[in-house]
Amino acid sequence: xxxxxxxxxxxxxxxxxxxxxxxxxxxxxxxxxxxxxxxxxxxxxxxxxxxxxxxxxxxxxxxxxxxxxxxxxxxxxxxxxxxxxxxxxxxxxxxxxxxxxxxxxxxxxxxxxxxxxxxxxxxxxxxxxxxxxxxxxxxxxxxxxxxxxxxxxxxxxxxxxxxxxxxxxxxxxxxxxxxxxxxxxxxxxxxxxxxxxxxxxxxxxxxxxxxxxxxxxxxxxxxxxxxxxxxxxxxxxxxxxxxxxxxxxxxxxxxxxxxxxx
Length: 262
What we know:
Layout: H1 3-19, H2 26-29, H3 35-53, E1 57-63, H4 67-73, E2 79-84, E3 88-90, E4 93-95, E5 104-114, H5 125-131, E6 132-143, H6 153-158, E7 163-168, E8 184-189, E9 192-198, H7 206-218, E10 229-234, E11 239-240, E12 246-251, E13 255-261
């Protein structure tokens, strides 16, 4: 795909983000689109957010890592994208949907906060552990700019991994004190049990997922930087939310995270 078409599609997605509307799937219009094309489209969209709106990158995310999410979306390999400061909400926050999100779904995740840079390829699980200051519970609110979540892997990569906003829990702990694959997360919606999952849902181990992301972005020349937050993927199926919904989760032995949609 040539640079002009990449820029056109990146601009379309940026306008959809700002106007809160959806687009027909890119894969329906561009049959030859590759994941590398999609990455460059997402980077163009990101640069619009930085240049026009003054946002700054504060982290990265991996998504579509667990089988329940893959089965739900029909996308069978991970996606990847960027987090900006404008996407962050505090624990317990009220998150408006109107004028802010389009078709949101909540994901319960484990987030990593880095204390030193990581540059792939060649990053291992041990490298990730050594570079991590803390982990914490997290809600990522995914939000596709593609009609009815009708996505293939190229659509979601182009759309910044279908990322909307995210909420970090207050309790940050040393990951070396926990068995990450066996960490259990329990999620409630409107005070009622919704779902649960283990850290092993994301590629067998959240460290494996973060290493994959570091290596994948490293192939594009994008490093992880000290201080950044890395979202490692959903431990349970995606949960559609509407105004009035209250979401909470508990990460066993660590603490919780919550948000309310308005």
